[in-house]
Amino acid sequence: MTQDQHKSGYVAIIGKPNAGKSTLMNRLLGSKVSITTHKPQTTRHQILGIHSEEDMQIIFLDTPGVINPRYELQKAMMKTVDRARTDADIILFIVDVKDADVPGRIFKMLSSLKGKKVFLVINKIDKVTDQEAEGVARKIQDQCDFDETLFVSAINGTGLQQAMDTIKANIKPGPAFYPKDMLSEQPIRFFVAEMIREQLFLLYHQEIPYSSTINIVQYDERDDLDYISADIIVNRESQKGILIGKGGKAIKKLGKSAREVIQGFVDKKVYLDLHVKVRDKWRQDPNRVRHYGY
Ligand SMILES: Nc1nc2c(ncn2[C@@H]2O[C@H](COP(=O)(O)OP(=O)(O)OP(=O)(O)O)[C@@H](O)[C@H]2O)c(=O)[nH]1
């Protein structure tokens, strides 16, 4: 095959928190590379998911939900969105059909994109009638021009084949940027930290998930098992107690469920050692935010 028959491109998935960006990317890839929870602002990094075929490579960029940043961590998250939209050839602007109020600044941002294809993706259509979904799409199309409009349910798969076909039809000639067997570019430590963070989002409430981050201190691949030591960093002393729980009950539950998910991922026994550390107001401190990989 000659190089000019091969196609490649970057596709950024952008939208408000909880629109279903990570679910959509995982489903389009057929593998879970991005954590998903029912809570908004779960995704903090740009997560890359690579779809390869013999003559094509599509690199999906999952991004944090677009918000008005209030603290350093959120500012770093929004820089990630900016980078993704600059890097991308195609933008999938995803809207939850039940949360379709789009702030004007997002339309402004979408309209400012030059030389890129922008697709409107109406997600969660399993929750509404076709008519309702079309009404929502029309309202959004009135405010901004889109190259294509797609209706999907990322969770049950409706419309995803058509979405993928439309994406593929718009990918231009270009070389493969990554080895064809690669699914993502982050190291295993990154995914392990994300899996712990996902369980934290699922098991704790209110400000705890948003105030925490995970720092993998040690990752030893041993013959019989992988030994992982991780710090859970919190914002305030009072949060440490909540994380640990009475008699250590809460953190034990977190450790158990995180260990099970990690074991499924690495396909090996895992020993997970979790410690809680207080780093006062880390989310407000640019150096710490950078240090923790944002
Ligand atoms: N009913 C329904 N729920 C969905 C669909 N897609 C995603 N969800 C749910 O919506 C919630 C948010 O999904 P995510 O994929 O984490 O959303 P996100 O846009 O990546 O969220 P952030 O990372 O917080 O910005 C989860 O509870 C999903 O299960 C869908 O098609 N239908």
TrEMBL record:
Residues 152-154 are annotated as: G5. Residues 123-126 are annotated as: G4. Residues 41-45 are annotated as: G2. Keywords: Cell membrane, Cytoplasm, GTP-binding, Membrane, Nucleotide-binding, Ribosome biogenesis, RNA-binding, rRNA-binding. It comes from the Bacteria. GTP binds at residues 15-22, 62-66, 123-126. Its main location: cytoplasm. Residues 62-65 are annotated as: G3. Residues 204-280 form the KH type-2 domain. Residues 15-22 are annotated as: G1. Residues 7-185 form the Era-type G domain. It is found in: Cytoplasm; Cell membrane. An essential GTPase that binds both GDP and GTP, with rapid nucleotide exchange. Plays a role in 16S rRNA processing and 30S ribosomal subunit biogenesis and possibly also in cell cycle regulation and energy metabolism. Belongs to the TRAFAC class TrmE-Era-EngA-EngB-Septin-like GTPase superfamily. Era GTPase family. This is GTPase Era.
